[in-house]
Amino acid sequence: MVTRIRQIVALAEDMEESAALYSKVLGLEVNWRTEMPLFGLIKLVMPTGNETFLEILQPVDDKSRAWKFLHEDRAKGGKFFSLIVETDDIDALLSRAEAANARISTRMEGSEASENKAAFMHPLGMNGVLIEILQPPKGRWPNAGPEESQKIASGAVVNRLRQVVVLVRDLEEAIHRWSTLFNLGKPNRLHVPYGDLDVAILPFSNTGTFVELATPTSKNSSAARYLEQFDEGLYMAVFETEDMDKAEAKIRDCEDAAISQTLQPNPGYRHLWIHPRSMKDIFIQITEVTDPINPWPPGGPDWYK
Question: What predicted TM-score, i.e. pTM, was given to this entire model?
C-alpha cells in the first residue's frame, strides 16, 4: 500500500524568499525549480534527506485553488498545503479507498509527460489533508527533479522528514480512517502534557515515516486555537537531526528564526520547536534520537521489529 511519506508541501507568496529562509535556518538548498501551468503554480524542491523533500509552491493564477487557500483560507497562518506519499500499488490502494467511500478528486495515469501514476485524495475525506498518492517508476522519484540532484545539502542540520502532524477533532475516527485506507501499523498512543494533546503516531509500513494524529485536550492550548481558526489539517512537520546541539546553535544564530520551546531529553529523544511566525507560517519540530536501538522512539517500541 502506502510505503512512506516523501514530500510535504507548503505555499508561499514568494517561494524564493521562503527557500532562502529555510536555507539560512536549516541549511537546506534548492535542487529543482519547475512550472506547473495546469495548476497555476510554480514550485521548487529542497531535499531534506533520506529521499524526503520539502516542496514550496507559489500560486501565480489568482483563480487557482492554491491562490484561494493562500490568500483567503490561510491568510493568517498555517501554510502547509498537501502531503505526497509513495505507493507500490496505486490500483489496489484506490480500490481500498473506494470501498471505504473515500473521495478521490483526480486520477492521472503515467504518460510521456509524467512518469508517475498519481491520484489526489480530497481533504474533506482525510481530516483536511490534501494527499497526493504517487506510484513512481521503480527505484526512482521524478517528482523531486533529476536523480543526481536529489541529495541533501552538506550543510543541512536535519537529515530526514520523519513525521507529519495532523490536527483532528475526533481522534478515534481519524485513527480508523487513516489505518483503514493506508493499512498503517499499530498506533503509539500518548498524552502530550506540554502541548495539551492526545496523539496517535502511526507508521507507514516499516520504512520509518509516520503520521501523528493529534487532538487538543484543552481549549486554551495553541493547537486548540489553531483548530478553531483553521479547522482540521496539516499542523507541523517533524524533521530528524543527528546533532541537536549543532542544529540549535545554527537556529539561534539566525535573527529571523525563533525557537518557541525546547524539551529536556526524554528517554530516547530530544525535541525543539521553531515558531511558525518566524518560518513563513510553517510549524517545524526537530528531533534527535538518542536511543541506541529504536530508530524512532515516538513511533513506539515495536514498529521497526
Answer: 0.95
